[in-house]
Amino acid sequence: MRREGQPLTERQHQVLDLVRRSVAERGVAPTLQEIADHFGFSSTASAQKHVNELVRKGWLVRLKHRRRGLVPVEAPLGGEGAAEVPLLGLVAAGQPIESLDTPAPVSVPRAILRDGEHYVLRVRGDSMVEDGILDGDLVVVQARREAQEGEMVVALVDGEVTLKRLFRQPGGRVRLQPANVSMDPIVVEARQVTVQGIVVGLMRRYD
In the structure, what pLDDT confidence band is assigned to residue 70 with cuts at 50, 70 and 90? Predict the structure, then answer.
């Protein structure tokens, strides 16, 4: 959760902006070495210090065991920097559930969005917690029918919706992998899975 009363330093703002731009333009966060090179730090230790503070203050989440595992945590906002994206309902990060049919608009930072159509889902459950996605978070989804290996997807599994990372298995099977060591993956025939989109952003309310 974002910590109130702990403003960012000028350098922390600059590092956060760099991470946001990299994710928006390249689809991945910068490495610590790239952050250090950009700001002329003598070592990655200085970059690590600023990143640690941004994580501690709730502006970034760090994905475990990923070299580029920094994700900016955005708050819904209005104004010229935002676009209205429909909130379609709930997606389970623990067990598949049906999404809701009645959309409602959510203001999403334009920096998150990529080409094509997008929608927002509210996460229910904790199976993606090790990827920094908590119960109640909003995920921004780019509508797509195909996904690369390991991408976080919203997928229909026998008509129900779930949020997992997708991996292809031998024999025409698919593994939908949670990011929670206490939970088992969903392994099914590829024909049972329809990719609805990939997660491109994460938002969290701080009410």
Answer: confident
Does 205 have pLDDT greater than 70? no
Which residue pairs from 88-91 have beta carbons closer than 8 angstroms and sit at least 24 positions apart in sequence? 88/119, 88/120, 88/121, 89/121, 89/122, 90/121, 90/122, 90/123, 90/124, 91/121, 91/122, 91/123, 91/124, 91/139, 91/154, 91/161, 91/162, 91/163
Q: In residues, how long is the chain?
A: 207
The catalytic position among 42, 46, 49, 164 is 164
107 is annotated as an active-site residue: no
Cα–Cα distance between 27 and 62 in angstroms, integer?
16
* Residue in 57, 107, 127, 182 annotated catalytic: 127
What tens digit of pLDDT does each residue of 119-153 get? 999 898 888 988 888 888 899 999 999 998 989 99
Q: Give the chain's mean pLDDT.
A: 84
Helix, strand, or coil (residue 172): coil
Q: Which among 151, 149, 146, 150 has a CA at the least distance from the CA of 193?
A: 146
Give the amino acid at 141. V
> Which pair of tokens denotes residue 136?
């109640």
Q: What pLDDT score was predicted for residue 183?
A: 92
Identify the CA nearest to 93 among candidates 122, 58, 72: 122
127 is an active site residue: yes
Domains of the chain: 10-74 (1.10.10.10), 85-203 (2.10.109.10)
